[in-house]
Amino acid sequence: xxxxxxxxxxxxxxxxxxxxxxKLPLNAEKITALKITAIPQVRKDDRKQIESLPIENEVGWxxxxxxxxxxxxxxxxxxxxxxxxxxxxxxxxxxxxxxHGTFWTQGKIEEFFSINVPIKTNIVxxxxxxxxxxxxxxxxxxxxxxxxx
Amino acid sequence: xxxxxxxxxxxxxxxxxxxxxxxxxxxxxxxxxxYVTGIILTSDKDDLMFYRGSQKIQINDKELFPEDFESRLLxxxxxxxxxxxxxxxxxxxxxNGRIEVWFKDTDHGAVKFTPYRVSxxxxxxxxxxxxxxxxx
Lengths: 149, 136
Description:
- The complex is a heterodimer.
- By secondary structure, chain A is mainly beta.
- Chain A is built from two helices and eight strands, in the order βββαββαβββ.
- Chain A has helices at about 45-50, 85-90; strands spanning about 1-10, 15-25, 30-40, 55-65, 70-80, 115-120, 125-130, 140-149.
- The radius of gyration of chain A is 18 Å and the shape is globular.
- By secondary structure, chain B is mainly beta.
- Chain B contains two helices and eight strands; from the N terminus they run E-E-E-H-E-E-E-E-E-H.
- Classes of the chains: A mainly beta, B mainly beta.
């Protein structure tokens, strides 16, 4: 049987380093998939610059580890993703937009990252470093874990 | 063979009228729908749901998506091929036919609140054909 859990980390300021623990259900046997998301606010004056960059922009770095039994099993440079509705609009622009850094995108449904992590304890430790350098933005980092029970 | 006309397509709406509130919707499947195969969320204001929305969804009293699961992960834009838009949920038995949705609106700096509609599309089938049964 599969179960999904969501852990939310509130990021309060730029450059913040956060250590946190994710408590898993006691009967969880392994982590089979995960996904990390963060959508910080884009300040209006930054927006134009960010949207001219190709699709992604770094938000922070994340490490997940299982204490004692196994060290870091997953790390990611979390990216800011431009909203789907913007991509849709981009998609309807004429083809010659290729030259300006926009893409003729074939979108797809967001997928979880497949992973196989057997769990011996019911705790996952996380460490997150915010990498947004301009503005002071509060946002939520969400960690989705799919567990086998 | 899986034919499109065998798929029952249902739409349920929740109106989000206040910011930072949880809205619960309780719906019932078509009586002929026995297995849920896919689900997708849309809205009349995509950007509000994209930034502000998260939800918990239960079907037949079983948790399909947990609390705080972002709505944007269940959305698909026009740039997704129409046949690939719904999120596949395996072949989930509809059982008592109850669908419960708790939709949570949360403040986000990128968009200001205005009332919006959340539509939940659920695709289900009457019975599993061989091909679907093997894939389950």
